[in-house]
Amino acid sequence: MVLVLVEHRQGEIRDITFQMLNKANELAEETDSKVSAVLLTAESKDFVEELKPWTDEILLHKDSKYENFNSDIYEQALTDIIEDKNPKLIMIGHSAQGMDLAPSLASSLNLPLAPNIVNLWWKDDDLVTEREIYGGKVNSEVRFKKEAPYLVTVQSAAFEAEEAPGLDANLVEIEPSIEDSEIFKKFLEYVEPEAGEVDITASDILISIGRGIEDEDNMDIIEELAEEIGADISGSRPVIDNGWLPEDRQVGQSGKTVTPKLYLAIGISGASQHVIGMKGSDTIVAINKDPDAPIFEVADYGIVDDLFKIVPKLADLLGKEN
Ligand SMILES: Cc1cc2nc3c(=O)[nH]c(=O)nc-3n(C[C@H](O)[C@H](O)[C@H](O)COP(=O)(O)OP(=O)(O)OC[C@H]3O[C@@H](n4cnc5c(N)ncnc54)[C@H](O)[C@@H]3O)c2cc1C
Question: Any signal peptide, and if so, which residues (predicted)?
Answer without folding.
Answer: none
